[in-house]
């Protein structure tokens, strides 16, 4: 009899094959973009057009990123892995647009903690919270990409970076049996952990817990 995943289970700190490829490609493109290299700028423009869409349905992405290493890993679901990488890169390209520093930060914020940073001090920003909850309820990767697009724009406007290698791994796991629950758990945990580092406001903390339980 298999043991259900623990509520304390965490995503590995080291990226898996999907996160490794996404992090490497984003790192390469980010370096080129910040150096204002025309080839990197052009690739980001093409990637941005796919942000918030089902990446598999965007022909302009076909062959844009070398996904062959994923197909050499027998244990991966290859279509799911390719979709996760393409989705992560498209969201990062939107996030990076017009920013003078890198918006992919290895070892940096997970989505939940980054969203919490959008909320000033101990105040619960209800519109942001609703977008975050809506993303967590997405039934498919395509819907999730659409809902993450809005959060990505908010993060870009405030200059808050993400660990996109971790996000790519989570987008892959989202497509596995039981994956959405595990990813939601990780996002919620990092959101609340980031909240606990802010000055204590019992009323605001209670508001978050009550709304998340509803």
Structure description:
The chain is mostly helical. It contains 10 helices and no strands. 61% of the residues lie in helices and 0% in strands. Helix 1 (17-34) packs across helix 2 (38-48), helix 1 packs parallel to helix 4 and helix 4 runs parallel beside helix 7 (141-158).
How would you summarize the topology of this molecule?
Blueprint: H1 17-34, H2 38-48, H3 68-71, H4 78-96, H5 111-118, H6 126-136, H7 141-158, H8 164-174, H9 179-196, H10 202-213
What's the end-to-end separation, in Å?
A: 32 Å
How many domains? 1
Percentage of β-strand residues: under 5%
Query: Can you count the helices?
Result: 10
Helix content: 55-70%
Number of strands: 0
**What's the rounded overall pLDDT mean?**
86
| Helix/strand order, N-terminal first | HHHHHHHHHH
How would you describe the shape?
Answer: globular
Write down the Rg.
17 Å
Structural class: mainly alpha
Q: From the coordinates shown, what is the CATH architecture?
A: Orthogonal Bundle
Low-confidence stretches at least 5 residues in length (pLDDT < 50)?
1-9, 199-214
Q: What is the makeup of the main sheet?
A: none
CATH C-level class is: Mainly Alpha
CATH topology: Peroxidase, domain 1
CATH homologous superfamily heading: CRISPR-associated protein Cse2
């Amino acid at each position: 009899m298999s043991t259900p995943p623990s509520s304390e289970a965490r995503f590995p700190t080291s990226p898996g094959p999907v996160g490794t490829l996404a992090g490497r490609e984003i790192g390469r493109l980010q370096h080129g973009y910040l150096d204002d290299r025309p080839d990197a700028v052009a690739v980001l423009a093409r990637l941005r057009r796919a942000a918030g869409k089902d990446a598999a349905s965007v022909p302009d992405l076909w062959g844009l990123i070398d996904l062959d290493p994923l197909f050499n890993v027998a244990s991966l679901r290859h279509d799911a892995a390719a979709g996760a990488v393409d989705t992560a890169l498209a969201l990062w390209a939107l996030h990076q647009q017009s920013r003078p520093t890198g918006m992919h930060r290895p070892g940096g914020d997970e989505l939940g903690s980054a969203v919490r940073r959008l909320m000033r001090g101990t105040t619960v920003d209800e519109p942001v919270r609703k977008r975050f909850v809506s993303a967590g309820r997405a039934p498919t990767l395509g819907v999730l990409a659409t809902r993450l697009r809005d959060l990505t724009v908010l993060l870009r406007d405030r200059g808050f970076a993400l660990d996109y290698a971790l996000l790519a791994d989570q987008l892959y796991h989202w497509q596995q049996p039981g994956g959405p629950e595990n990813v939601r758990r990780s996002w919620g945990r990092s959101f609340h952990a980031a909240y606990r580092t802010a000055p204590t406001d019992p009323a605001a903390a209670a508001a978050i817990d009550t709304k998340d339980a509803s």
